[in-house]
């Protein structure tokens, strides 16, 4: 028996049976029976916006898989560039494909010199690096007008390579501008994570990349690489559905990520931990959250109603970094917060668990990243995911995104002259 639902229009008595396929029902059938009656779903919490074969997320059971591969296995065995290939191409690369892919990414890391000098200089000295990143990713579209040819899959892939390759250069240039340090050019002899760390931190003496930092960076990038239809990925798909070029669509995704409810949460977590200040203040803080005066940043998720598997991996990765750097004093407060929240009825009943952002900021800070770079790090990691969804959406020849609204404003009225208002 095929699974289905039946909807009845009580005004007319007319019914329609709609089959359930892949856990959803086709809204086109709903439209047939109920033209002009819109499915009202602010936040799109119960609406599927896409059919996608990229990432499987089972929030009830805390499962995350990229193209079928469990996140735990990828975090342990893979690299960020291999995961990027997997997300975009659907399969793990062979040795030859991997060599070509890494070579291509490695040789597209430079920014046009005019872009590097002029774009960054035009921002105020203390501009937030995420603001620079959003603008400069969009700015690249003017240097690559050929990227507008989004009907050609090979052109799409060419610019996907450029975007993944240039993100560390864009990110570190934004940072160095904000602290008044000269740019460090990419070193094509280094792997992706090491190159990024060197461009970020080298001042004066050559920067030796600690293997524990290199691996932690790889793991963090892998964990952030995709998360199906989240706010920024949905933005990439929606903006891309108008057939704009990939740089502009990816810039829009960066902008969506910037907010504290999404990618900005990792920065907000550390500010929150600072604000709590000491172990003794954890309980009163939790009471404040329950009273609705505070929000426990790094907790809760639209989809996970269980421990975020990424948070578990990050918590473990933190030990390897802390073994090199010494522990972060805010870790104790974070652990106490987690313990207090996980045993409290408020959080239990709402199924609020730590998410990816709860521990990632502690690692970043211990590695020497300033807080305003945390969301930028998230954006570097998420770029292949955004691109894979954008590419998939174009392959599916999707319609332009154009939701309906339930109008609640004034009925028609006549214009009132200024003197009569
Ligand atoms: N602290 C306290 N209460 C919370 C929290 C929290 N962090 N998150 C949700 N709640 C409560 C919320 O007040 C609501 O309570 P009630 O039913 O009494 O009104 C209930 O839990 C359901 O929450 P919601 O607001 O309907 O959940 P949502 O799906 O709209 O929001 C969220 C999801 C991630 C925006 C939210 O949990 C939040 O703001 N968390 C803190 C910010 C954060 O850590 N964001 C990173 C998300 S993971 C990385 C990413 O994907 O970007």
Bound ligands, named by name, code or SMILES: carboxymethyl coenzyme *A
Strand order of the largest sheet: 1-2-3
Shape verdict: globular
Radius of gyration: 23 Å
The pLDDT mean sits at: 94
Helix content: 40-55%
Order of helices and strands: EEEHEEEHHHHHHHHHHHHHHHHH
Tally of contiguous helical segments: 18
Structural class given helices, strands, pairing? Answer: mainly alpha
Q: What distance lies between the first and last C-alpha atoms, to the nearest angstrom?
A: 64 Å
* Fraction in beta strands: 5-15%
What is the total tally of β strands? 6
Describe the structure.
This protein is mainly α. It has a domain at 1-38. The chain is 53% helix and 6% strand. It contains 18 helices and six strands. The protein has helices at residues 27-33, 71-77, 80-89, 95-106, 113-121, 129-143, 153-178, 192-201, 211-224, 231-240, 246-257, 265-276, 282-290, 309-325, 330-342, 345-349, 356-367, 374-395, and strands at residues 4-9, 14-21, 24-25, 55-58, 63-66, 69-70. The chain has a three-stranded antiparallel beta sheet with strand order 1-2-3. Strands 4-5-6 form a three-stranded antiparallel beta sheet. A hairpin with a 2-residue loop joins strand 5 (63-66) and strand 6 (69-70). The model has no long low-confidence stretch (mean pLDDT 94). Carboxymethyl coenzyme *A binds at residues 227, 230, 261-263, 265, 289, 295-302, 350, 352, 355-357.
């Amino acid at each position: 028996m095929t699974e289905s639902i039946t909807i009845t229009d009580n005004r007319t008595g007319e019914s329609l049976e709609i089959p359930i396929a892949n856990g959803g029902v086709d809204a086109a059938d709903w439209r047939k029976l109920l033209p002009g009656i819109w499915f009202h779903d602010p936040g799109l919490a119960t609406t599927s916006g896409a059919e996608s074969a990229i990432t499987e997320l089972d929030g009830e059971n805390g499962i995350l898989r990229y193209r079928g591969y469990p996140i735990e296995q990828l975090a342990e065995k893979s690299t960020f560039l291999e995961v990027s290939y997997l997300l975009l191409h659907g399969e793990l690369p062979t040795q030859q494909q991997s060599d070509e892919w890494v070579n291509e990414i490695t040789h597209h890391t430079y920014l046009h010199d005019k872009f590097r000098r002029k774009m960054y200089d035009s921002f105020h000295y203390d501009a937030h690096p995420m603001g620079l990143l959003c603008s400069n990713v969009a700015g690249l579209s003017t240097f690559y007008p050929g990227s507008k040819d989004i009907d050609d899959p090979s052109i799409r892939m060419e610019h996907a390579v450029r975007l993944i390759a240039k993100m560390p250069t864009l990110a570190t240039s934004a940072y160095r501008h904000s602290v008044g340090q000269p740019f460090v050019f990419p070193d094509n002899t280094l792997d992706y994570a090491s190159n990024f760390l060197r461009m970020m931190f080298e001042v004066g003496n050559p920067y030796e990349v600690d293997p524990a930092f290199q691996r932690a960076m790889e793991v963090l990038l892998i964990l952030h690489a995709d998360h199906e239809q989240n706010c920024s990925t949905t933005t990439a798909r929606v903006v891309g559905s108008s057939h704009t070029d990939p740089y502009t669509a990816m810039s829009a995704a960066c902008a969506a990520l910037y907010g504290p409810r999404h990618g900005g949460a990792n920065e907000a977590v550390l500010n929150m931990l600072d604000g709590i200040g000491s172990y003794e203040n954890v309980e009163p803080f939790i009471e404040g959250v329950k009273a609705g005066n505070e929000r426990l940043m790094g907790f809760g998720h639209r989809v996970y109603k269980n421990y975020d598997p990424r948070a578990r991996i990050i918590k473990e990765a933190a030990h390897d970094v802390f073994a090199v750097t010494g522990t972060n004093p805010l870790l104790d407060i974070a652990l106490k917060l987690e313990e207090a929240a996980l045993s409290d009825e408020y959080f239990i009943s709402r199924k609020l668990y730590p998410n990816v952002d709860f521990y990632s900021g502690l690692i970043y800070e211990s590695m020497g990243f300033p807080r305003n770079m945390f969301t930028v790090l998230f954006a570097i990691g998420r770029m292949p995911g955004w691109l894979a969804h954008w590419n998939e959406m174009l392959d599916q020849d999707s319609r332009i995104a154009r939701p309906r609204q339930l109008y609640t404003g004034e009925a028609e009225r006549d214009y009132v002259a200024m003197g009569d208002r």
